[in-house]
Amino acid sequence: MNRLALSCLVLLAACGGTERTRRTFPVEVSASSAPLLTDSGWAVTLTKANAHLASVRFFAGKVLLAQRSPWWRGLLIADAYAHPGHYIPGEALGELVQAADVDLLATTPTSWGTASAVTGEYGSMQLTFATGGLELEGVATKDTQRVEFTATFTPSGTLEGIRFERVMNTAAGFVTVLLDLNVVLSRIDFAQVGTRAKPLDSTSPAFNGLGRGVEDTGAYVTTWKDQ
User: What stretches in the chain show pLDDT beneath 70?
Assistant: First the structure.
């Protein structure tokens, strides 16, 4: 949805559809800071974690959540991890189209920008990474094993069906998108890095695990904060 489409949505609402009121709200981005441990038992310390973002859009459609597959399933079946459960976006309600480079290791959230939107019942959002995607650098340890790694993964398309449920009115507040790095890293087995770890071999099971973590919509915890 572009700004023209959003403007048309407001006009249509005023002509007999569901009543909408134009509004804006800030969007900020942060990441989890809890100790990072993969499903296969690797403790990870990140020295670099940058997210390059392009846009976020909000929709009325709600997401039916499904249980995440166990980490070892990806070693047997190289399937792409899509949104959990059935998802239909429904009505478009807001957007922020603006590039943002986010340091996920920063101690304070990063301001992304201001979304143009309308009031209504929100159910989900869609997130698009810019060129550069998610960049990671760090060290993984397990028992006496130590793996220094770098990796970059950019989803091939928009991440659809990220849960965000709120009855949006005109009250002051902002949206915060928290990237859960535990979910992103959870499927990586650093014992299977292929031919190299710096940068991570893109044909390896470890890289496949990273890709499925980045594309797991459960890694993006989106909430509303009142002001």
Answer: 1-18, 65-85
The encoded tokens of residue 194 equal 């292929």
Dmax over CA atoms of the chain, in Å, equals 68
pLDDT digit string (tens) for 132-145?
A: 999 999 999 999 99
Compute the distance between CA of residue 152 and CA of residue 195 in angstroms, rounded to an integer: 16
Distances in Å between the alpha carbon of 114 and those of 35, 131, 177, 189? 31, 21, 13, 38
Q: Structure tokens of 134? A: 């998610």
Per residue, the 3-state secondary structure of the chain, as one string, reads CCHHHHHHHHHHHHCCCCCCCEEEEEEEEEECCCCEECCCCCEEEEEEEEEEEEEEEEECCCECCCCCCCCCHHHHCCCCCCCCCCECCCCEEEEEEEEEEEECCCCCCEEEEEEEEECEEEEEEEEEEEEEEEEEEEEEEECCEEEEEEEEECCCCCEEEEEEEEEECCCCEEEEEEECHHHHHCCCCCCCCCCCECCECCCCHHHHHHHHHHCCHHHEEEEEEEC
Q: In whole angstroms, what is the distance from residue 191 CA to residue 212 CA?
A: 17
Report d(CA 195, CA 101) in Å as an integer. Answer: 30
Q: Is the pTM of this model over 0.90?
A: no
Residues in the chain: 227
